[in-house]
Amino acid sequence: MWNPEKALFTELYQYPEHLRHTLENLPGSSGVYIFYGDDNAFPLYIGKSVNIRSRVMSHFRNPAEAKLLHMTRDIEHIETTGEIGALLLESDLIKTRRPLFNKRLRTARKLCSIRLQGLSAQIVFSDDVDFSHSEDLFGLFKTKMSAIEKIRDIADQEKLCYGALGLERLTKNRACFRFSLGKCAGVCCGKETPEAHQERLRNALSTLKIRSWPYPGRIAIVEEASGQTDYHVINHWFYLGTVKTLEAAKAFDIAVPHFDRDSYKILCRPMFETDSSKVILLD
């Protein structure tokens, strides 16, 4: 959709000479950068990169970001040992400081997931179910409607029955309307077994399965680069913070307020696919 305000700034784009001096202080290493306007207490934009200087310069070359650059008066940076630390810090800062131009990581604390129960696909919420330990949870959604739409998409692709899934009411001893259209394989009228219906549903959802927290309590993920070491302290998929020593990591303990979608997505790969020696049990 055409945005006249954005188009105006794009047309008037000029290289932000007033920010040129900030490039001199930006490192070519991993970390987070913060764009500030006239008030340094409230950031305009927070980003991350494995090369802070290169990433900030890419903003300078992008006419579509003319409005952000026009408003920016200063750019702060925070170096991290590696990419994991940058991802975690960016996510944490966006949630706590809520910059004007960031939208993607402003995740609502209340999340939805799909739980298989019998033949149906039930929608459950993170304030009712412990997403860190529950089995048979599939997908992380910001709204109930987005979860339902995912179930409908899978049902359409796999010829699953809306009625059996709990999306529509079924009339006893009668096939659903979608069966007459060839869009349901017929579990509602005995043309398909409930077990076959359930297996196709589970297979279609398999890539969305939420992995349970595999440790008894807190862990530290060790990230090392260029002679530096960071210990990222995690508990039940929630990022508690980063410290420089194992002793500080063991002493780092706060209550886990909620399951965090972004931390989960950031941490799944390094936790399950990296050398096990990089994960230290703290509890």
TrEMBL record:
Q: What keywords would UniProt list here?
A: DNA damage, DNA excision, DNA repair, Excision nuclease, Hydrolase, SOS response
Which Gene3D superfamilies does the UniProt entry name for this protein? GIY-YIG endonuclease
Output the PROSITE patterns linked to this UniProt entry: GIY_YIG
Any GO CC annotation of this UniProt entry: excinuclease repair complex
Locate the transmembrane regions by residue number.
none
Q: Where is the GIY-YIG domain?
A: 28-103
The molecule here is called: Excinuclease cho
Organism expressing this protein natively: Rahnella contaminans
